[in-house]
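Dear colleagues,

As part of the handover before I leave the project, I'm documenting each prediction I ran so the next person doesn't have to rerun anything. This entry is a single chain, and its sequence is reproduced below.
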Amino acid sequence: MAFLEEMGETDLPDQKVTREIQGSVSRDLQVKSGQQDPKDKKEILVYQCTWVNPILILISGIPGETSLIQSEIISLKSKLSHLEKVISFSTFRRVGQKFYVTDGTTGQFEEAVRFCRNSGGKIVLPRSEEENQALVKVLSSFSSAAFIGATDLKEEGRFVDDEEKSLIFTKWGSGQPDNYQGSQDCAIIQTSGIWDDNNCTNSFLMVCEIQDKDK
């Protein structure tokens, strides 16, 4: 590609110019001087442009500059990919250092665990009143309870998270968990924000939490 730029008279020598352009194009510019417009005696600079890479990077010769910029580009691509995962869900809400996401589908507890893992996160588990209320707002769009990442499958009456650690926050309803009929080993959160234990094979809304890459 070639294009002309009208300039005032100059004695610029032939030179190659490399510039960083914000966006997704890369150019190698060859500047040729010495040509003149016969009508107004002004010099015409001819730029020969070659498209190179998806992103134009111009390195000024400073050691380590290339690797630094490449590292920043990789980091940016990772963050964009991460955000694409989040916004692929019909409902998402940011709370603290994470996003709560769901597409409104329901499933059993193990299905929810797999679904969230495959989505790049894990099954939701509020760890503070703020997070609990944020999850309530997500549930309000569906008027449905949801599984949360707490079970007492290993030890009856002792609910732990997915790493088998004791819960740092709970919001059990009065008399809960009660292991009704001896088959309630998975925790759910009601639309009111109150927790209850329920059968792991029942179906509830699947909500995932995805960590914020910027944090």
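The chain has two domains: 2-68, 80-211. The first strand starts at residue 2 and ends at 6.

All the best with the project,
I.
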